[in-house]
Amino acid sequence: GENVEQHPSTLSVQEGDSAVIKCTYSDSASNYFPWYKQELGKRPQLIIDIRSNVGEKKDQRIAVTLNKTAKHFSLHITETQPEDSAVYFCAASKGNEKLTFGTGTRLTIIP
Amino acid sequence: ETGVTQTPRHLVMGMTNKKSLKCEQHLGHNAMYWYKQSAKKPLELMFVYNFKEQTENNSVPSRFSPECPNSSHLFLHLHTLQPEDSALYLCASSQASTSGEQYFGPGTRLTVT
Fold first, then answer.
1. Residue B25 forms beta bridges with which residues?
2. A95 interaction partners in chain B (CB closer than 8 Å)
């Protein structure tokens, strides 16, 4: 089955700086890669996703890049703000099969 | 109410109790999931239902028993739990035939004493 690894497990970034979280996956057939954000005491929510037919997707301060050859994808947050502090999870799946989640990254934005 | 709802939001139970968690989705989805989220651990998939049929059971102990009477409702029946079962239990739903994007409920915080 699919195996997703996520790094780092914790990340502290000065407000205004950029944050990068990286994930690798094992199944080359995986074609859907979402990122979820979970604020303290709240449910995980999808913030951005990418499919295997594109290499990069951007939504305001958030971007995701995908390298299919190397089987890794990354979340980039620019101009970080205090409300970006949360746990971020990457995931991978193929078609309509179940998502396999990474172990999560706790991002702390230092004011 | 829209989205995915879960009740109760908090539950404290003894090891000999029997209780049930309820999940309801108002999104017209066909797939529903139960996840366990413990401190400092990834989301652990427990059960998957597609069109009311269980399609996955990730080696979950029999003290957890799921039930899916229709595509909108999902239950998790609990009995003779252990303290290590204390966790946040999250329900999610998705449109089974498409992308796999999942919508999560707010979770039930379970404490086993």
1. B4
2. 100
Please tell me if residue B42 touches chain A, with a CB cutoff of 8 Å.
yes
Residue B100 pLDDT level (bands cut at 50, 70, 90): low
Work out the number of other CB atoms within 10 angstroms of the CB of residue A108: 14
What are the residues whose beta carbons fall under 8 Å from the beta carbon of B61, sequence distance 6 or more? none
Q: Which H or E run contains A102?
A: none
Phi, psi (deg, nearest 5) at residue B105: -85, 175
Q: Report d(CA B77, CA B65) in Å as an integer.
A: 5
Q: How far is CA A28 from the centre of its chain?
A: 18
Radius of gyration in angstroms for the set of CA atoms belonging to chain A, rounded to a whole number:
13
Q: For chain A, how many residues are written?
A: 111
Alpha helices in B47-94 (DSSP H): none
Flag whether pLDDT at B90 surpasses 70: yes
Mean pLDDT of each 10-residue bin along chain A, 111 residues long: 93 98 95 94 93 91 96 98 97 82 95 93
Closest CA–CA distance from residue B93 to any residue of chain A (Å): 11
Sheet holding A56-59, edge to edge: A4-7, A19-25, A72-77, A62-67, A56-59
Tell me the pLDDT of chain B averaged across its residues: 90
